[in-house]
Amino acid sequence: MQRISSFQIWATLIVMTIPIAFLEVPKRQLEALGNNAWIAVLLALPFGLLIYAMYMFIIHRSQTPFPAMLEEHFGSVAGRLLQIFYFVMELGIAAFGIRLFVEFVETNVLPGTPISVYIVILLVVCFSALKSGVQTFVRTFEIIAVLGLPLTLLILALGCIQPLNPENLLPISNIDLKELGIATASTSIILSRGFIILVLGKLANDWQGMRRAVIGALLTYVFLLTLTVMLSILIFGASTAQILSFPTFTIIRNIDIAQFIQNIDIIFIGVWILGMFATTTGTWFISLLSLQQALRLSSYRFLTAPTALILGVFAIAMAENILEVHILSNIIIPFLYGVVLFFIPFLMFLRILFASTSNQSAKSIPVQNMD
């Protein structure tokens, strides 16, 4: 197995967290906190540091990568049951990401097209990436991050030169602490989509470089999301921004520079498509690895085709319309992230911290082949 560079770790964390956050965070925070929504995003920084520090501790103190580490720290029986659980849950998370993106396209870009068409196209592209192997799609993530991040920053910079009303941010002091806590938690928990680092961490060629990559990805996430939420408030006002299904896209659609630079939303859509391809591929990959490890299979590749069918059906069946998708986004999915991507790793963290030895030698655990 070839090694993965620190820059590829950074790129992978970027594409696993930011594309889905652009669709979920602004709407959710604006509904909860109104003109103070940006504060909750900024407060995600310390909580994100704790989440990633926990992941790094688990990687450092484990002899195997995820999902084999579940057996290393919870024992063979419990570990393999958890691997089956992760297969199902990660597949569900991937299906939700697909459906959220499809609803965005259906609502804002090409209304009237059956959602099954978008789902099939996205699954075919992700299927090809998974069949090519981890090294190939991680390099693709690197390219997506290098192309997508500067374009996203440029688009947000163009949004900053539109007519802004700083008074829309006032009053800052009028904050419901309960809502602030819930909003901060819901923003922070999306960072747990960087869970893929538990899979790739053992492949990193530089531990110190990986730590810097993790911190860099976290700072990038907080900066971009804080800027996006603040722009939504400064341009539209909190009351108007709250009723927009996708405030970020509306900002981009309204960019107008001297009536010359207009309709640049197609550029952002292209970047977003690349980002959603990456986050779907990464989540699907974790699901397949979990099943491969639980069943002691030699490769995950032949599982890709049958699970693609399950993924497509699940994405279609999980909601009737965009309102149900928003309910999933606001209530069910944050809870799912909390259980799957934070609580179980936290139990693993506690077990490593307080247990003197593992339940069984890691040498006796067959580790999945990622090639």
How would you characterize this protein structure?
- By secondary structure, the protein is mainly α.
- Helices cover 73% and strands 0% of the residues.
- The N and C termini lie close together (7 Å).
- 48% of the residues are buried.
Using only C-alpha atoms, the radius of gyration works out to 20 Å
Summarize model confidence as the mean pLDDT.
85
General shape: globular
**Can you give the helix content as a percent range?**
over 70%
Helical stretch count? 15
Low-confidence stretches are: none
Strand portion: under 5%
Characterize the biggest β-sheet.
none
- What is the CA–CA distance across the termini? 7 Å
Coarse structural class: mainly alpha
Let me know the number of strands: 0
- What is the N-to-C succession of helices and strands? HHHHHHHHHHHHHHH
Topology, please?
Elements: H1 6-33, H2 37-42, H3 44-60, H4 68-74, H5 76-108, H6 115-132, H7 134-160, H8 177-188, H9 197-200, H10 207-236, H11 238-241, H12 247-253, H13 265-295, H14 304-317, H15 322-354
Helix pairs in contact: 1-7, 1-8, 1-10, 1-13, 3-8, 3-10, 3-15, 4-5, 5-6, 5-13, 5-14, 5-15, 6-13, 6-14, 7-10, 7-13
Keywords, please?
globular; 73% helix; 371 residues; mainly alpha
Give a quick rundown of the structure.
The chain is mainly α. It has 15 helices and no strands. Helices cover 73% and strands 0% of the residues.
